[in-house]
Amino acid sequence: MPAPRTRSKFTYGPTGSRIYFGGQTWQTEYYDSFNVCRDTSGKVRHQPLEINSFEGGGGIINGSTEYASFDNYPCDYLAFTSKDRVISTPNRPSDSELVVKLLAKTNPSTPQFGVATSLAELKDFPGMIRDLGNIYNSGILKQFSSIKGTSSAYLQWKFGWEPIIRDLLNVTKFHDAVHRRFNRLKNLKKSGRETMRRVLWKQRDTHQQYMVYQSLGVYIDDMSNINTYGKVSGYVDWVLDNPDALPSTNPELMFLASNIALGLRPGLTTMWNLLPWSFIIDWFSNLSDYITMADGQIDCHFENLRLMDNAHQVIAVPQKKVGPYEMSLMWLHWESKTRWIPKTDHLLPTFKLPVLSPGQLSIVGALIGARRSERYRLTSSGLL
Predict the structure, then answer these.
(1) Mean pLDDT in runs of 10 for the chain (384 residues)?
(2) 210 - beta bridge partners?
């Protein structure tokens, strides 16, 4: 029967002495490498896993006064800091957000392109051509001389011309997308199940923290830069409920793969993308991923969904000199690899207050500029 177990290995760093002239002598040693693995005996696939690793070095103190003498002594921080430390990727989203994102990214029915959405948006193309002609006829400088003109031109580019150009550039990728989806559906029909893995979150964070490296014999302290970075990924098994439901001939299967990969068959995802300003709601929630996760054309269910975090933390301390004492450059590196079983029942959309990027702020500014200019025009003319 599987049972929890812990395995570890480590190596020792150099030993040095701290000698007080009163006759007392201290020696210390530390782990310059440390590894511990907590998992389950027997069949460990899909079981929770935790691997913590540490490497460090430097931080050697030398120097002598009437009060104390240090001879290649590893500083106390390096010797006594916790080596078995669990590091997490900074600002990691909640398990519910990660699960929904993983299911949306790996669902066999998830489209890679939104051709149906692009075709629906082409109804605005004649108006875009007309507006472009108006800008040319009225003069470019005149068009951009007002807040409304500048804001409207930016929004037309961001949500009119830029998506059309992007879609035209993506045409060359359509063939590869269809063939990849065809091969995926073919293998899924043959085996009845597939395992899909995706990276869900990457983040890096740097902050400063006050640290005391040595307090007994000599006081050495300073602000240190702590760098934490990592990525969160996940994998899931998709299982067909009825393998016979997929087409049995290659031409029919290719037709289905084309519809799914290119998003040719309108569904909930297409309807959501066509709603005005739905992208702004996506800034504050994962509603788009939730809709994509639930919008399926293939009758299947998921099993063995797992999340994994691979995170690092690095501290580098430059050489320090305090009077006659000198501490060499010190570095510490922790790494954690964890795998856990998240809750997958009662999944609901989540909402958050994000930090908007410069691109998102520019869109909000353009919307406000266009709206305020229109309101001022109506007020001035007595219509509001």
Answers:
(1) 78 78 68 85 81 91 88 88 91 91 89 58 48 49 46 50 54 74 90 93 93 91 94 95 85 86 71 67 74 78 94 94 93 95 82 62 53 44 43
(2) 223
* CA distance readout (Å), 126 to 122, 123, 131, 144, 148: 8, 7, 9, 22, 21
Report the candidate in 232, 234, 233, 235 with the shortest Cα–Cα distance to residue 203.
232
Find how far residue 85's CA is from the centre of its chain.
22
Torsion of CA 69, 70, 71, 73, to 10 degrees: 160
Helix (H, G, I), strand (E, B), or coil: what is residue 274? Answer: helix
Extract the tokens encoding 33. Answer: 């490498």
Task: Give me the sign of the Cα torsion angle 370, 372, 375, 376.
Answer: negative
HEC assignment per residue over 78-92: HHHCCCCCCCCCCCC
CA angle 186–189–191, rounded 5-degree value:
105
Alpha helices in 74-161 (DSSP H): 76-80, 95-106, 115-121, 125-138, 140-143, 147-156
Task: Determine how many CB atoms are found less than 10 A away from the CB of residue 242.
Answer: 10
Look at residues 49, 10, 48, 47 and name the one whose alpha carbon lies nearest to residue 32: 10
Nearest to 222, CA basis, from 235, 207, 209 = 209
Q: Which pTM value belongs to this model? A: 0.73
- Give the number of other CB atoms < 10 A from CB of residue 82: 10
Report the alpha-carbon distance of residue 293 to residue 105 in Å, rounded: 8
The conformation of residue 93, written as its DSSP 8-state character, comes to: P
Walk across the sheet containing 68-74 and list its strands.
Answer: 25-28, 16-20, 68-74, 60-64, 325-327, 320-322
Please give the structure tokens belonging to residue 159.
Answer: 């949500």
Pairing of strands 68-74, 193-214: unpaired
Contacts of 252 (CB under 8 A, 6+ apart): none
Confirm if 36 and 52 have CB atoms less than 8 A apart.
yes
Q: Provide the 8-state DSSP code for 285.
A: B
Query: Tokens in use for 12?
Result: 């020792």
DSSP annotation of 351 reads B
Longest dimension (CA), the chain: 94
Cβ contacts of 294 within 8 Å, gap of 6 or more? 268
